[in-house]
């Protein structure tokens, strides 16, 4: 708006200057010498004066026409300038309008962009909230899944531990039952061995008593026949020999009983027998055992049983010990 007003004021100043300059020129166009010529016309021909006056009028008319044309041109120029000014003002108003419109559109665009941005931010916020809720839900489900898996693992572990405890209890029960059966078998075997040992002891005592009785009878007989020294000595020797023989038989039965207590065989060897020869030290320590006759399997088991005994009881009588150091025994499964 300010440049248009400045241009309009400048055009008016120029127009005033041109008009003033034209007025001065018109006043100056009336020559002062004409007065002199008028003075001189008093002495010249009036026709000349008229012609001169006509010429002057024509010149003034010409000057007026020229001035009128000049003014017309100036007016036209002023009009053009005014039109240009108006056009410039119109252009400036259009520019301003366009600027205002552009500013309005820019504001509207900014407002639209701001609204879109706010909408986008709101959508982003909502999307973020949804994402956060979804993430929380996912985390919650993951946590529930993890807890469920942990619970399942604990349950499975508890089940496995229960099964292991149950298996262990079953195994311990089986072991306990096996141990009970083993102890029962050992007790039965021990009772059987004790019974047999008692039988063997009773049998050995019976034989010892029988031998003692026979010895007493022999000694009585010897006493009755004491009158004959040679006969008595012979009888004493015979009784001694019988005693030694009986003791060897008794100890042989004890050795056989001890071997049979250590004998491990199956029912398939029932009715079989094995004859072995044992060599012992004076204290009863086993020096050697040899198979003499009988079932091969039973003899292997018998030698094993003899080796497991390893130490046999020995009497104090040297003659009996001498007989027992190299003894032959017959072993039969009970």
From TrEMBL:
<dbReference type="GO" id="GO:0016020">
    <property type="term" value="C:membrane"/>
</dbReference>
<dbReference type="Pfam" id="PF06519">
    <property type="entry name" value="TolA"/>
</dbReference>
<dbReference type="GO" id="GO:0043213">
    <property type="term" value="P:bacteriocin transport"/>
</dbReference>
<protein>
    <submittedName>
        <fullName>Protein TolA</fullName>
    </submittedName>
</protein>
<feature type="region of interest" description="Disordered">
    <location>
        <begin position="108"/>
        <end position="219"/>
    </location>
</feature>
<feature type="compositionally biased region" description="Basic and acidic residues">
    <location>
        <begin position="108"/>
        <end position="217"/>
    </location>
</feature>
<dbReference type="InterPro" id="IPR014161">
    <property type="entry name" value="Tol-Pal_TolA"/>
</dbReference>
<dbReference type="GO" id="GO:0019534">
    <property type="term" value="F:toxin transmembrane transporter activity"/>
</dbReference>
């Amino acid at each position: 708006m300010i440049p248009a007003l400045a241009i309009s004021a400048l055009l008016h100043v120029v127009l005033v200057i041109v008009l003033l300059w034209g007025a001065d020129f018109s006043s100056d166009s009336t020559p002062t010498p004409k007065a002199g010529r008028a003075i001189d016309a008093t002495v010249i021909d009036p026709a000349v004066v008229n012609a001169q006056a006509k010429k002057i009028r024509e010149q003034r008319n010409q000057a007026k026409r020229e001035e009128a044309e000049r003014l017309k041109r100036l007016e036209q120029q002023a009009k053009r300038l005014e039109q240009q000014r108006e056009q410039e003002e119109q252009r400036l108003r259009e520019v301003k309008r366009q600027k205002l419109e552009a500013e309005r559109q820019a504001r509207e665009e900014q407002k639209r962009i701001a609204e879109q941005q706010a909408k986008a931010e709101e959508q982003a916020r909502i999307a973020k909230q949804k994402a956060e809720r979804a993430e929380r839900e996912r985390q919650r489900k993951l946590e529930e899944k993890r807890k469920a898996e942990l619970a399942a693992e604990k349950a499975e572990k508890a089940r496995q531990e229960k099964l292991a405890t149950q298996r262990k209890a079953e195994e311990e029960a089986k072991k306990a039952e096996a141990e009970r059966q083993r102890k029962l078998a050992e007790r039965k075997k021990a009772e059987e061995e004790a019974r047999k040992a008692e039988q063997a002891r009773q049998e050995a005592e019976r034989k010892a008593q029988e031998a003692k009785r026979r010895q007493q009878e022999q000694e009585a007989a010897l006493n009755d026949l004491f009158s004959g020294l040679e006969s008595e000595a012979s009888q004493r020797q015979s009784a001694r020999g019988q005693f030694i023989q009986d003791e060897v038989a008794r100890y042989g039965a004890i050795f056989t009983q001890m071997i049979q207590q250590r004998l491990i065989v199956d029912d398939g060897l029932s009715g079989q027998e094995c004859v072995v020869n044992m060599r012992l030290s004076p204290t009863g320590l086993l020096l050697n055992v040899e198979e003499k006759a009988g079932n091969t399997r039973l003899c292997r088991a018998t030698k094993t049983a003899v080796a497991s005994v390893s130490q046999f009881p020995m009497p104090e009588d040297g003659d009996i010990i001498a007989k027992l150091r190299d003894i032959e025994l017959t072993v039969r499964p009970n």
